[in-house]
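Page 37, continued from 36.
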């Protein structure tokens, strides 16, 4: 079976559904269109961390291969936009990536859930501690 799963593709991870009455679901409900748009453009796994101040999304397969997109005040930000807006060097962006990897790894055991967005599902990590750590790293950039 291991050989076949390697040939046919890795089975997508399964997470229990996010409680629709949870604070995270309430926060995500206003971001559904944003997530649907990102799903179309990224065509990759999304892991959303909703907060009171915005939305953070790991794109790809953290902690190894990933990007991060965040939404604050209705604007989308990413590594590329930060490079342009803040004039960061490649080394500084790598430091940012390393810091975001460290944050993810520190919270790797947090419960994760699935959240439907159209006909796809997004992984959701409704961790306040993860949100605070992400806000600290991103906030240090002035966002």
């Amino acid at each position: 079976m291991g050989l076949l799963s390697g040939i046919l593709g890795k089975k997508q991870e399964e997470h229990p559904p996010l409680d629709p009455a949870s604070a995270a679901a309430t926060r995500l409900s206003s971001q559904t269109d944003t997530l649907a748009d990102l799903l179309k453009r990224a065509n990759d796994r999304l892991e959303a961390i909703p907060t009171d101040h915005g939305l953070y999304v790991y794109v790809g397969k953290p902690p190894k291969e990933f990007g991060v997109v965040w939404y604050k005040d209705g604007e989308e930000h990413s590594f590329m936009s930060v490079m342009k807006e803040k004039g960061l060097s490649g080394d500084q962006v790598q430091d940012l990536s390393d810091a975001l990897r460290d944050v993810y790894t520190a919270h790797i055991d947090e419960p994760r859930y699935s959240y439907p967005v159209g006909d796809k599902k997004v992984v959701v990590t409704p961790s306040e501690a993860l949100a605070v750590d992400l806000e600290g790293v991103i906030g240090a950039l002035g966002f």
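The helical segments are 2-8, 23-29, 32-42, 79-86, 90-106, 128-139. Flag for discussion at group meeting. Strands lie at 46-50, 55-61, 65-72, 75-78, 113-117, 120-124.
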